[in-house]
What we know:
seven-stranded mixed beta sheet, 12 helices, 51% helix, 6PGDH_NADP-bd
Amino acid sequence: MELGLIGLGKMGGNMRERIRRAGHTVIGYDRNPDVSDVGSLEELVSSLKGPRVVWVMVPAGAATQSTVDELAALLEPGDVVVDGGNSRWTDDEKHAVELGLKDIGFVDCGVSGGVWGLKNGYALMYGGTEENVAKVQPIFDALKPEGDFGAVHAGKVGAGHFAKMVHNGIEYAMMQAYAEGWELLEAADSVTDVREIFRSWQEGTVIRSWLLDLAVNALDEDEHLEQLRGYAADSGEGRWTVEAAIDKSVPLPAITASLFARFSSRQEDSPQMKMIAALRNQFGGHAVEKNSK
Length: 293
């Protein structure tokens, strides 16, 4: 099968390689000419035989919208566009309508696997009609992990990215729990080897997971994480998860708390904590630390 792939960064570049290893032809385009197979989107589309399948792996929002707009002008009826980036599910619905006006199919696909995907395969969650999904199925089969699991037709257009969004929300909460446990262990005078405690949890415990394995990897590289600054960004999907929960009146206390914990990581001198310190001093005479500036 032939595939056009737009966006050859950390994820896209490895995905191109994995698909090629499965015996498919991939023509990739990227703004970086050092990694691109062709010089333009026009050249990419003209290099593919119809019906074409073009997979988009660019940042969500404006970059994805402009790419979809360009493809709408270049592709033909019966072709299919796959958005494998981290787009919001509501954008998928919009893109499906826009492309549908020209009889171009659309499939959204949440992709998880990170830098390990080339070796282990990518977990895939995709949404769209049975007809359009079938046109992409050989590529899904090439990208997914070996075995019976790791890929799912989640439902209608938007369902793939919605599922990936919830996946990332769960990931936020799991990482926060590991992080809080690690900090508490580090703070205990009686505990002498936090790294080996984490390592011991990798077998036989109910909290063993790939994230725990990665935590042990990180502690092997930097036992007390002294080389890192306590700052954590968020990709946007955590926010969308909380917003969707509000819209649907679904309580998500753990995921919501983990998102707000990331916000607090960006404050070297938290204004909220200043107010809490001031109030504790006012009502209880608790000591406060003065700003050195």
